[in-house]
Amino acid sequence: MFRNKGYCPICECEVEFYSEHEWFRDHYQCPGCHSIPRERALFVAIEWFYPQWRSLTIHESSPCDRGVSRKLRNECPGYVGSQFYLGFPLGVVHPDGFRCEDLENMTFGNESFDLMITQDVMEHVLDPARAFTEIARTLKPKGAHIFTVPLVKKSQPSVSRARRGKSGGTDYLCPPEYHDNFSSISEGSLVCTDWGYDISEFIFKASGLYTTMLYMDDISKGIRAELIEVLVSKKL
Predict the structure, then answer these.
(1) What is the dihedral of CA 234, 45, 63, 192, to 10 degrees?
(2) Do 118 and 195 meet the contact criterion of CB atoms below 8 Å apart?
(3) Which among 24, 5, 22 has a CA at the least distance from the CA of 224?
(4) 204-231 pLDDT, tens per residue?
(5) Strand order in the sheet with 99-100
(6) pLDDT score at 182
C-alpha cells in the first residue's frame, strides 16, 4: 500500500491519495472523487488553458462516472456527454442519459463547442483521421480538444493495430488487444492504434489542429504515473 497526503485538483481539498498496486496509472486514487493520475492531470490542463471552463460549451465523449467527468457535468451548464450505442440513432439521447454520437460522424453543427474532452478514447477509434477532422469541425475558433491517450510507442512511430475494412467490418493488422471500459462490452474496447509522440503530426495533417503535449509529475496533487501525457489540440 502506498499513501501520501496532498491536494486533489478535482475535489479541491486536502486528501490522502493511495494505491494498492504498483501500476499507479490505473490504481493511484483519490478517496473523494475516485480519480486516477491521468484524470487529475487532465483537469489541471483544463484549468491552465481554460480557467473559465464553467462558462464554456463542452462536449465529452465516453465520460465515466467519477473524477473530472462528474465535475464537468455538475459544474458546467454547457456540458454535453455522449456515448456510442451500436444500433441506436445518432444525435438522440439514450435512456442512459447520454447523447448517442459516433466520433467519426458526429451530428453536432459546425463550431458547436469551446472544448472537446476525451479520456483514453482515441486509441480505440478505427479511423482516427476522420475523428480528429470531426472534432476540429465541431470546435469553435480558439477552442481545443484536451485529452489523454496512452503514448505507448513514445519516440517510435505510431502503429495501426486495426482499421475499418472496405466491407464495413474490422481488419486486424495485429493480434487483437482490448482495454477495460465503462460500457457493457464484455471483452472491453479494441485497441486500434498504439500511439507515439508523432500523434501531434498526425493530428495536424488530419485536422489542422496544433497540439501541445504536456507531461506532469506532481505527487502533491496525486499526479504521478506512466503514460499520463495530456494533449491540447487548439483550433486557430
Answers:
(1) 60
(2) no
(3) 24
(4) 999 999 999 999 999 999 999 999 999 9
(5) 99-100, 78-83, 57-61, 113-119, 139-148, 230-234, 210-214
(6) 53
| Spatial distance between the Cα atoms of 8 and 63, rounded to a whole number of angstroms | 19
Domain, as residue range, for 10: 2-234
CATH number of the domain within which 100 lies: 3.40.50.150
Query: Cα dihedral sign for 107, 97, 13, 22?
Result: negative
- For residue 209, the number of C-alpha atoms closer than 13 Å in the C-beta half-sphere is 33
What does the pLDDT look like over 48-82, one tens digit per residue? 999 999 999 999 999 999 999 999 999 999 999 99
Whether 11 contacts 3, CB under 8 Å: no
Domain count, the chain: 1
Q: Which three cell numbers stand for residue 143?
A: 477552442
Measured CA to CA, the distance from residue 64 to residue 182 in angstroms comes to 7
Report how far residue 41's alpha carbon sits from residue 9's, in angstroms, rounded to the nearest whole number.
9
In Å, how far are 28, 147, 223 from 213, measured between CA atoms? 22, 10, 16
Q: For Cα atoms 28, 30, 36, give the angle at the middle one, nearest 5 degrees.
A: 45
> What's the rounded Cα separation, in Å, for the pair 192 and 164?
10
Measuring CA to CA, how many Å separate 96 from each of 62, 65, 81, 92? 12, 12, 11, 11
Nearest-angstrom CA–CA distance, 146 and 137: 15
Overall pTM surpassing 0.70 (yes/no): yes
